[in-house]
Amino acid sequence: MIAYIIRRLLLMIPTIFGIMLISFVIVQFAPGGPVERVIAQLQGLDNGSRVGGGGGDASSQAGMQQGGDTSRYRGAQGLDPKFIEELNKQFGFDKPAYERFWIMVKNYTRFDFGKSYFRDADVLELIKEKLPVSISLGLWMMILSYAISIPLGIRKAVADGSRFDIWTSGVVIIGYAIPGFLFAILLIVLFAGGSFWNIFPSRGIVSEDWATLSWPDRIVDYLWHIVLPVTSMALGAFATTTFLTKNSFLDEIRKQYVLTARMKGLSERGVLYGHVFRNAMMIVIAGFPGAFISAFFAGSLLIENIFSLDGLGLLSYESIINRDYPVVFANLYIYALLALAVNLLSDLTYTWVDPRIDFETREV
After folding, report:
1. Which of 144, 165, 192, 267: disulfide with 188, CB 3.0–4.6 Å?
2. How confident is the model at residue 359 (pLDDT cuts 50, 70, 90)?
3. How many Cβ atoms from other residues are within 10 Å of residue 103's Cβ?
4. What is the pLDDT of residue 364?
């Protein structure tokens, strides 16, 4: 197992390198950029989140890379060319693209992400500040989803074809069909002072006076704030995990070893949790990494915007809009590392669930 872990860790290096290289190349052809955003601000064309006029084009991006032809910057007419050159130098665009990429790779190996273009703060400090919010939402969503979906899926498998199975399937499918962000808006309207009840807060993850509260009150205040966001994120996750669990248990229940265990006089509960559970949960565990990363990034992106939660999802969205490349690439790097680490953890969990699995004898 140690050799397998070492091989997987070594394979993370070219994987991360490839992700960063492809992303860097794509950004070079993306319209607009930080230089054009500064120019738009100076010209009064920036709306505070993106470059006016939709940004530049590929030729303007090429101008940024070369750092010379200021006429290629949309809106740069009338500005001092030396000022444009200073902007290029400030953002690092006075160097060739390949040199900037290698500098970025070298710095990222030391977790040195530089400074944000527009926030006047170290990128690593920004990520440390926002990370707890996103992790909190992702973990609570996964805990809630798995705590309900797995028992429900097992119950549906045992009662396959019954009225309980049919009506719960309908409820789960309807929940899956409703987009998380739309359900979040519905919850705000119903329970956050929209048009009906004002039970839960609609903004933030804690109250403004949270620091002055006692520890029990802090816990209650925190849980009170995350009820609506976590519920919105977990809604769509129920369907996949529930049906995955049900189908996996159905496949195992119909196998010969289950019939043999029943013939030996074991109770249904003993058969289900003593024999079927371990084998059936393999496929559920396999889906955990993708579900976690999806909840951690894609799910939190929309929910954080709707509930004004200052996490990595909101930070990533604003950084992409503002062309804040150090923050964009740092977030991508962190997410890639998390995804690879969670996948490795998932494989290791396989061996805990089923000791018969030996990754030492398998090729990575």
Report:
1. 192
2. low
3. 13
4. 44
Q: Are 299 and 94 in contact (CB under 8 A)?
A: no
Q: What is the 3-state secondary structure (H, E, C) of 190-244?
A: HHECCCCCECCCCCCCCCCCHHHCCHHHHHHHHHHHHHHHHHHHHHHHHHHHHHH
Cα separation of 123 and 115, whole Å?
A: 5
Q: Which tens digits make up the pLDDT trace of 326-354? A: 898 998 898 888 888 877 877 777 677 66
User: Look-up: residue for tokens 């505070």?
Assistant: 48
Please state, in angstroms and rounded to a whole number, the distance separating the CA atoms of residues 273 and 286. Answer: 19
Q: List the beta bridge partners of residue 198.
A: 192
Taking only the tens place, the pLDDT of each residue in 255-286 is 888 888 888 877 878 888 877 887 787 777 76
**pLDDT value of residue 43:** 64
The residue assigned the tokens 């949270």 is 210
Token reading at 9: 């860790």
One DSSP character per residue, 33-101 reads: -HHHHHHHHHTT---SSS-GGG---HHHHHHHHHT--GGGSTT-TTS-HHHHHHHHHHHTTTS-HHHHH
Neighbours of 324 (CB within 10 A): 23
